[in-house]
Design goal:
Elements (H helix, E strand, L loop, with lengths): L2 H18 L10 H23 L9 H24 L1
Length: 87
């Protein structure tokens, strides 16, 4: 994916993931934090998709990439919440 595609998908995925899992104070509340959550979610989601289905995950600005990125962002929010509880 191009740099611009990562940003666009990251913004959308971060917003949707935070809407699905409304949150705790440790989650990023700024625009940049939400975008980074979505971008890292795309990386995590793409890695998980590739590991389980042996197919590329986030490949551009399309519905499949967006869904993979949202799932990855939700996974990151869940991991963050587990780590916060453990601390």
């Amino acid at each position: 994916m191009s740099f611009l595609a990562w940003i666009v998908v990251g913004i959308i995925a971060g917003i949707v993931a935070k809407a699905i899992m409304p949150g705790w104070r440790s989650e990023p509340n700024s625009f940049i934090g939400t975008m980074l959550l979505g971008i890292f979610g795309a990386v995590v989601g793409g890695w998980l998709w590739n590991a389980f289905f042996n197919a590329p995950g986030a490949t551009g600005i399309n519905l499949g990439s967006l869904l993979v990125s949202i799932v990855g962002s939700i996974v990151l929010i869940g991991i963050g919440r587990l780590l916060q509880r453990a601390a």
